[in-house]
From TrEMBL:
This is Uncharacterized protein.
């Protein structure tokens, strides 16, 4: 195994060096095409250095699953994961994973991929469907696949940001013609581009950034003004605070929290819903009486 890996990428032949040290050294010295780009094997999709290592990683995951490894992977799987992590951090091009394909061949997850693939889908799209339909809580192989999808998606968002930002009101298709209203709560959470908090209180994930699954809803104006006193749900319970600004760091409200020690801390409110921010009725009534 070590010989195969070394032969596939001579950059890893240096003794005593960590994977990321070797890759970053070659990128820094002008070896970007060798380290991050470059054609490797036309039978592998995508035909890039990153594509080759993804292929090896998926093959190792499939082998771990075949022999029944649970709650831990083989040493080769962990090694390949380190290689992929270093390549992503160094700046490998992830765009080919999101380009539409007309065919898919030589995929380590062959049976599942071939069954789910349709012309026009991307490699990432197919692997995401595999992770959804075959995911099992005790399946370490699927956890490895989810880790890969999360990393690819995070890097892809730097090149092509998701259409919606945190706090955007959207409508999500939960099957058939059942559309539900919610607000984007997080981006690229658990391998999916969007986590959405529905008005009914449920949290759902949109696996693909597509109007058939998630579309922009009617935007609602923020309920509170600058200077309004509010109650904010923090890790240790509800805290009183004052709205000081809007849309800082992606949060609809930036609040100065007032605790018992009279010190002021600042926190962002992730979305404008009653279950995380409410008007401080007691303080409002006191101001009205004054």
């Amino acid at each position: 195994t070590s010989f195969q890996l070394a032969r596939a990428c001579p950059l890893l032949l240096f003794p005593g060096c960590a994977v990321d040290d070797v890759i970053n050294f070659h990128v820094a010295t002008g070896g970007r095409k060798t380290a991050l780009e470059g054609s490797v094997d036309p039978k592998i999709l995508p035909d890039t250095q990153l594509g080759f290592w993804v292929h090896k990683f998926l093959k190792s995951l499939a082998e771990d699953d075949r022999v029944g490894l649970r709650n831990h992977g083989s040493s080769e799987t962990f090694y390949l994961r380190d290689v992929l992590a270093a390549l992503l951090v160094a700046g490998s091009d992830v765009q080919p994973f999101f380009d539409p394909l007309q065919e898919m061949h030589d995929c380590p997850l062959e049976l599942a991929a071939n069954r789910l693939f349709k012309p026009g889908l991307s490699f990432d799209h197919v692997l995401t469907m595999v992770s959804i339909y075959q995911s099992r809580d005790d399946d370490d192989a699927m956890q490895g696949l989810c880790w890969l999808l999360q990393g690819l998606g995070h890097e892809y968002s730097k090149v092509r940001p998701p259409r919606f930002t945190r706090g955007t009101w959207v409508e999500c298709n939960l099957g058939g013609d059942h559309w539900h209203v919610g607000v984007v709560a997080d981006l690229w959470c658990d391998r999916f581009p969007y986590e959405v908090k529905l008005t009914c209180g449920r949290r759902v994930h949109a696996p693909f950034d597509d109007d058939k699954i998630i579309k922009k809803g009617t935007q609602r104006p923020l309920r509170f003004k600058k200077g309004d006193r509010v109650l904010c749900l923090m890790d240790d319970g509800w805290k009183r605070g004052v709205i000081v600004s809007f849309w800082e760091h992606g949060f609809p409200y930036w609040v100065r929290i007032e605790d018992e020690s009279s010190e002021s801390n600042f926190a962002g409110v992730p979305f404008d819903l009653d279950d995380v921010v409410q008007g401080d009725i007691r303080c409002t009534r006191r101001r009205q009486l004054e």
